[in-house]
Specification:
mainly beta
């Protein structure tokens, strides 16, 4: 018995040129997060990385995707700060002992805001996440300043 399938093309063979999103701040839903080993570079030592797939719905009918990588190297401050920002942007609170897999799983399906820029490499333009936007928390009302005068209840007329 033989099965015949339609011709398939490798993604590299198809010409899928999409215009990148205009630079700006967008709301994204995190569609997928995979934990991938990273072999290291001159800037980051070998570690795991989170490969994040984000989707934004522009007008309800058209969605666009942007990918981001966050390296999980505890000695690399930029990476750890970026990880903290995406977690805060999603409004997730994780324990200090949360593992890499737990962090990855907790991000899937969450909404976050991110600033997108256009990156050009070898003549091809693509989007990059510049930074994750952490929502501002409501400021707590400040207690009135005291004048430094000690008043006891015996000094009050009532």
């Amino acid at each position: 018995m033989a099965f015949t399938f339609g011709a398939t093309k490798n993604a590299k063979d198809t010409d899928m040129d999409f215009e990148p999103l205009q630079p700006g701040t967008y709301e994204f839903q995190i569609e997928n997060v995979t934990l991938v080993p990273f072999s290291g570079s001159d800037k980051v030592k070998p570690c795991n990385k989170l490969h994040i797939q984000l989707r934004t719905d522009l007008d309800g009918a058209h969605s666009r995707k942007v990918w981001d990588d966050i390296f999980l190297d505890a000695t690399h401050n930029y990476s750890m700060n970026r990880l903290a920002k995406i977690v805060q942007s999603c409004g997730i609170s994780l324990s200090d002992t949360a593992g890499e897999k737990e962090i990855a799983d907790s991000l899937i399906g969450e909404l976050c805001n991110a600033e997108v820029i256009i990156h050009e490499y070898n003549g091809k333009k693509s989007n990059r996440i510049s930074k994750y936007i952490v929502p501002k928390t409501e400021e707590q009302p400040k207690a009135p300043a005291t004048s430094g005068i000690d008043i006891s209840s015996d000094d009050l007329p009532f």
